[in-house]
Amino acid sequence: MKYCSSCGARVSQVIPAGDNRPRYVCERCATVHYENPRVVVGCVPEYQGQILLCKRAIEPRLGFWTVPAGFLENGETLADGAKRECFEEANAHVEIGSLLAIIDVTYAQQVHILYRARLLTPEYGAGTESLEVQLFDAAHIPWHDMAFRSVEFGLRRYLADRAALREDLHCESLYPLSA
Amino acid sequence: MKYCSSCGARVSQVIPAGDNRPRYVCERCATVHYENPRVVVGCVPEYQGQILLCKRAIEPRLGFWTVPAGFLENGETLADGAKRECFEEANAHVEIGSLLAIIDVTYAQQVHILYRARLLTPEYGAGTESLEVQLFDAAHIPWHDMAFRSVEFGLRRYLADRAALREDLHCESLYPLSA
Question: Domain locations in chain B?
Fold first, then answer.
């Protein structure tokens, strides 16, 4: 951030009075521009025991596999966001089920929230952000080509719970991997 | 938003190619400035059966009661954010417990995430954003002076669960009240 979105003047990083963190503050109008984590919502869509995954057509992690997920939009609920992302990325209609995972992705300034979901019909296809979309048996999930650690975490918990006839909520915090 | 935070030129609201919502886009450098919901984290701190509440010293809802809560910051986990807010608003050290509630506050572009918490010692006081901080018996909670519907929702579920010896997670979506 270099300029104030309110008045167009330069911003600089200072700790405002009464605050304890550096913020971008406008040098002219003094507006404080806060930056906060964003919410990524997604789901694990299941159809007759198989899981629907998308191969990413965009960076980051182009060419790797993920569950349908993306940024929550203003004005929508978490469940509605997960449903919308599934339709946009996989052209698939799902019924959103129970909460599967809440994952702090501290290094990306994101919170990932994943739901269980039921694919209503075996109809799907690649949205503009996907190269391909495919149903996988649990035994054939491409674990070595997963796009994100949060997605791998959620998928593994999903399958373990399913095998145990459970539907737990799994909370996890991810930190940067050491080099 | 009137100006581009990257280059300082004017922005206008347009639907970018491949998108389906109006976004603020820079008229000079074409940067798209997305706006997404923010996460509010908080907790219900309990000490020997009593609940710690804060009377707000700032708008919105100045003078009304709330649980300690505030915006999640970049780089912190949800639980750490809830703990930090409790210290900042109530000068109180808590141990964060189980997830209590996840509330879509669609009209405020927020997601509220509340935890159960245990006040470690009966030491607390008003932080800069609080007029006063007080421990309440369940029977004396100021329901008619609650700051936010999400807080009332969380508190009521907290007390009902406690009476039933449960610790459930409660998910809710709040919409604007009709006039």
Answer: 1-35, 38-174
